């Protein structure tokens, strides 16, 4: 009765009604009347219900705003992470459902309190839990809480493989691989468009060429087009074809016969003269090939109204011939492409050129000097048979 009396007193006071001392007995009789007791009972129940409703709403807001962090996932990799209601303090949930996991390639196991699966998409994603808490009526709507989940992309999936434009006048196959006899040896060569080029649909920039020459020599040429040069794919093709054509020219075929005579002189005597003659021969013949290719690039650039730099590419080539005592190997290089000879028993590697390096080591021009000083000759190698 005291609580009811205080409740009504407070209610009256808020409405400007004050019960004077000489009206207290009347006030007590007023509170004891049956109809007023029923009203007081209802007021008390309404007050309790109001408090309960507020606690429920406050709890729902607390859960919705509660930060939940779960481990990051990666596309294509098996994923398992704890998702424990008890750990989050959600023991008062009376009903729930989880939505959005299937679209991510994941599922929830209430038995193991885990999220498992293999993620299928990447990004700052989310799934949601729809829930009811204790105190809510059965017919009450579910409330939604979004759970953030970061799924990292598969690094391999970041790279696309876009086809190059076949309508481009200087288009070439994105990948070429072949195995072919060359002299008494076999040549295995593969040229494949780089990943960064495939990712944007640009072209394979490098090229190669080879030929068995009519004088017993064989030539192999490789050129790596500079990625920063817009027509380097054409430049690399031109220089490879140009070197082969140079050594197929009758005058070049004839000039290579001189090497046989020089080699015999070197084998029959020692001294600086024969070595100098050999070096001079390599300097002149291989150097002329590079010089001719350089002039061809200039002519092409002028005809197509582009700059010589647009055709920038590295160049390495080697000439080899088998003699009774072994192989003679001649090489030329411009740029950051190495040439090496591996011995038959795989115990020794001989570098056949000096590599150009620097701020733009992969974008040299093919000017004849002083690049000729980077040529290197090798006398017959008896270890190769």
Describe the biggest sheet? 5 strands, antiparallel
Report the strand count: 16
Tell me the span between the first and last alpha carbons. 117 Å
Number of domains: 3
Q: What's the CATH C level of the largest domain?
A: Alpha Beta
The fraction of residues in strands falls at: 25-35%
Judged by helices, strands and strand pairing, the structural class is alpha+beta
Named CATH architecture of the largest domain = 4-Layer Sandwich
Low-pLDDT parts are 360-385
Summed over residues and divided by their number, the pLDDT gives a mean of: 85
Protein name: Protein phosphatase 2C domain-containing protein
InterPro entries: Ig-like_fold (IPR013783), PPM-type-like_dom_sf (IPR036457), PPM-type_phosphatase-like_dom (IPR001932)
Domain PPM-type phosphatase: 193-360
Pfam families: PP2C_2
Core attributes:
about 375 residues; Immunoglobulin-like; Phosphatase 2c, domain 1; 3 domains; 5-stranded antiparallel sheet; 4-stranded mixed sheet; disordered C terminus
Please summarize what this structure is.
With 385 residues, the protein is of the alpha+beta class.
Describe, in plain words, how this protein is organized in 3D.
This protein folds into three domains: 2-65, no CATH class; 73-154, Immunoglobulins (Immunoglobulin-like, Sandwich); 175-381, Phosphatase 2c, domain 1 (4-Layer Sandwich), CATH 3.60.40. A hairpin with a 6-residue loop joins β14 (340-342) and β15. The longest helix is centred in the last third of the chain and has 33 residues, at 272-304. The strands form five sheets. It has a five-stranded antiparallel beta sheet, covered by helices on one side. Strands 1-7-6-3 form a four-stranded mixed beta sheet. A three-stranded antiparallel beta sheet has the order 2-5-4, with no helix packed on it. Helices cover 33% and strands 26% of the residues. The protein has helices at residues 2-14, 24-32, 34-65, 195-200, 232-248, 250-255, 257-268, 272-304, and strands at 73-74, 79-82, 93-99, 106-109, 114-117, 123-133, 143-152, 175-182, 185-192, 207-212, 218-223, 315-323, 326-334, 340-342, 349-351, 376-381. It is an alpha+beta fold and 385 residues long.
């Amino acid at each position: 009765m005291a609580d009811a009396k205080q409740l009504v007193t407070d209610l009256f006071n808020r409405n400007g009604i004050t019960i004077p001392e000489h009206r207290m007995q009347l006030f007590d009789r007023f509170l004891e009347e049956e109809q007023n007791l029923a009203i007081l009972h209802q007021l008390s129940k309404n007050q309790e219900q109001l408090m309960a409703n507020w606690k429920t709403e406050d709890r729902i807001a607390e859960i919705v705003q509660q930060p939940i962090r779960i481990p990051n996932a990666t596309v294509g990799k098996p994923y398992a992470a704890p998702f424990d209601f008890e750990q989050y303090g959600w023991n008062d949930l009376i009903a729930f459902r989880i939505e959005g996991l299937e679209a991510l390639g994941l599922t929830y196991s209430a038995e193991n309190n885990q999220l498992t699966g293999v993620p299928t998409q990447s990004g700052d994603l989310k799934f949601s839990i729809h829930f009811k808490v204790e105190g809510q009526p059965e017919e009450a709507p579910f409330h939604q809480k979004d759970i953030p989940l970061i799924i990292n992309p598969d690094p391999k999936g970041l790279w696309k493989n876009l086809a190059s434009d076949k309508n481009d006048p200087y288009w070439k196959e994105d990948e070429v691989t072949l195995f072919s006899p060359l002299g008494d040896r076999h040549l295995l060569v593969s040229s494949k468009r780089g990943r960064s080029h495939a990712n944007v649909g640009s072209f394979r920039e490098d090229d190669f060429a080879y030929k068995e020459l009519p004088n017993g020599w064989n030539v192999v040429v490789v050129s790596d087009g500079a990625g920063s040069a817009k027509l380097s794919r054409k430049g690399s093709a031109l220089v490879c074809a140009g070197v082969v054509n140079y050594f197929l020219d009758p005058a070049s075929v004839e000039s290579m016969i001189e090497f046989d005579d020089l080699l015999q002189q070197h084998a029959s005597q020692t001294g600086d003269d024969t070595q100098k003659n050999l070096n001079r021969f390599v300097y002149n013949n291989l150097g002329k090939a590079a010089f001719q290719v350089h002039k061809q690039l200039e002519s092409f650039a002028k005809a197509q109204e582009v700059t010589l730099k647009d055709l920038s590419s590295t160049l390495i080539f080697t000439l080899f011939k088998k003699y009774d005592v072994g192989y003679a190997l001649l090489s030329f290089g411009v740029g950051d492409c190495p040439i090496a000879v591996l011995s038959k028993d795989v115990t020794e590697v001989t570098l056949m050129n000096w590599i150009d390096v620097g701020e733009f080591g992969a974008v040299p021009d093919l000017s004849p000097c002083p690049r000729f000083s980077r040529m290197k000759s090798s006398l017959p190698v008896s270890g190769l048979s």
